[in-house]
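Researcher: We plan to redesign the surface later, but first we want a full-length starting point. Tokens attached.
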């Protein structure tokens, strides 16, 4: 476990958490702020964008539609992967702050 801690500590030292525009100084503060802001987000906008995308893809020839869909899926997968890795770093920062 100490080896994992050393790796995570080094990772956070080399790539510190960016709180962005937030005034938070600790992970729990930031997570609570992000949670509050996310509850104010507009899921209908996201649904609308996906509907627009679907309508656009339907106008394309099948081969082009499939190629575009594959690119979009790959982008989504890459976004999820990078978000997961970022979440691990945030979790490691939280663990360090709890000591």
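Model: Full-length starting sequence:
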């Amino acid at each position: 476990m100490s080896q994992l801690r050393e790796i995570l500590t080094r990772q956070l030292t080399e790539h510190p958490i960016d709180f962005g525009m937030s005034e938070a100084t600790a992970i729990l503060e930031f997570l609570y702020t992000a949670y509050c802001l996310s509850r104010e987000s507009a899921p209908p906008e996201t649904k609308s964008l996906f509907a627009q995308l679907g309508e656009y893809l339907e106008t394309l020839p099948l081969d082009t539609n499939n190629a575009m869909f594959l690119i979009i899926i790959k982008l989504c997968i890459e976004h999820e992967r990078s978000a997961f890795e970022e979440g691990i770093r945030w979790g490691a920062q939280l663990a360090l702050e709890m000591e």
